[in-house]
Specification:
single chain, alpha/beta, six-stranded parallel β-sheet, two-stranded antiparallel ribbon, 8 strands, 14% strand
Length: 231
């Protein structure tokens, strides 16, 4: 009888131990599967993050290109002493325009600009309405600009003849032309009006502005604010 009871208890113990071992094995297996599942998800999350970053950068590039494409204002200027150049740079800063310096193919020397010498180059050119000094270089895609600020110094009451060369070198149809000049004493006078005939009749000429040699940036800013530039 005692042998039967002992055998029965032994079988029960074996059954209980086997069941516990099976449960531990399932628990361990579930834990490993869960860890493996989390490991597989992690690279997908990182990839999604990388794709999002790329999309943001692409959007920024597109916005930059769009801003550049909307910039349709040009400041074209001729300057020998730097006075007109300074005004042109302030206009570009205020309007976000692009700058283009009208550079003579043959630079002007100090003797060329000697107004007291009637035989100097500048005096000879101003005395000849047909003079057209050559320009070094050109403006690419001039047709892209809707507004052009045209700057020059006053030479004997008029714009230098190289400005005539510039105006006759391009088709400015339907462009808004805004002249400005620099002078220590003379006003803009008829210098701007005398340039009208060099362009197509469809050019819209705004009233010009003269700046003195001691002009400051705030003078330019006030002038720009008074203009009705197209959107």
């Amino acid at each position: 009888m005692k042998r039967i009871i002992s055998l029965f208890l032994l079988i029960c113990m074996i059954t209980v131990l086997t069941a516990c071992g099976f449960e531990n094995t399932e628990s361990s297996s579930d834990s490993e599967n869960s860890a493996a599942s989390n490991t597989n998800l992690q690279p997908e999350i990182e990839n999604e993050s990388e794709e999002t970053d790329i999309s943001v950068y692409e959007s920024s590039d597109e916005e930059s290109d769009s801003t550049s494409a909307d910039n349709k204002i040009l400041v074209a200027y001729f300057s020998c002493t730097g006075t007109t150049e300074q005004i042109a740079e302030w206009i570009a800063e205020e309007t976000g325009a692009e700058l283009y310096e009208i550079i003579p193919d043959t630079p002007y020397t100090e003797d060329d600009l000697n107004y007291n010498d009637s035989s100097s180059r500048a005096n000879q050119e101003q005395a000849d309405s047909s003079a057209r000094p050559a320009i070094a270089g050109s403006v690419e895609n001039m047709e892209n600009y809707d507004v052009i600020f045209l700057g020059y110094p006053i030479w004997h009451g008029q714009a230098p003849r190289i400005i005539s060369t510039f105006l006759e070198s391009y088709d400015f149809s339907d462009v808004m032309m805004i002249p400005f000049c620099t002078s220590h004493s003379s006003g803009i006078g008829s210098s701007a009006e005398n340039l009208h005939s060099l362009c197509a009749e469809t050019v819209t000429w705004e009233e010009g502005r003269r700046f003195s040699g001691d002009a400051v940036k705030s003078d330019v800013e006030a002038w720009i604010e008074s203009l009705e530039l197209p959107d």
